């Protein structure tokens, strides 16, 4: 099977950390990704809610193809396109509002990504977590139809309405070196389900990492299992995602 491989980052390649900046990349992962990318003739990309520049920092010195901010940004080979904060004045006002209204909430983190914003409450008390979720829902409602709210694991993220990982993967699949291959996507969260569905529709293989209800047809238990599989593929093992355990 000639595949085009798409990989989420948090919860898929790396374990989720209490804070976004506390994520640790396992030694050897970058080298495995580089070897696997060469084996796939370049058809490997990171598809993430983080900015592409942040992913570059985690995976340095590699500069893999990537879609950041759920597809607002995209890079194939060259420079990053999209994702300019100045293109989103209404969102910028809501980011300032969220920063002010959550300032007194202990362990609630506002992750300002420029063209999107995420509110994290993993470490917050139940009351503060509920307040944070209510605030991000209110901000999304105030922004209207141009933006949408994605709820994940103790996080709510507001992104441009047209930005989804599904659109990002399909955009990759429309050009070399991805075109003509079978799309394969690994993800771990509710925010990945739209892309799972589109990959299924396009005849690809969607793999859910971890527990939870999913439309993906295959599943791996955790990021360690994903890394072990990628290490095997990078070393020349048979690439057969359709043979992975059913979801």
Automatic annotation (TrEMBL):
Record's catalysed reaction(s): alpha,alpha-trehalose 6-phosphate + H2O = alpha,alpha-trehalose + phosphate
Broadest EC class assigned to this enzyme: hydrolase
Keyword Flavoprotein in annotation: no
Keywords for the protein's UniProt record, in alphabetical order: Hydrolase, Magnesium, Metal-binding
Pathway: Glycan biosynthesis; trehalose biosynthesis
Pfam families, alphabetized: Trehalose_PPase
Cofactor (UniProt): Mg(2+)
Taxonomic superkingdom: Bacteria
Tagged with keyword Lipid metabolism: no
Enzyme Commission designation: 3.1.3.12
Family: Belongs to the trehalose phosphatase family.
Its biological purpose: Removes the phosphate from trehalose 6-phosphate to produce free trehalose.
NCBIfam families associated with the record: HAD-SF-IIB (TIGR01484), T6PP (TIGR00685)
Protein name, UniProt field: Trehalose 6-phosphate phosphatase
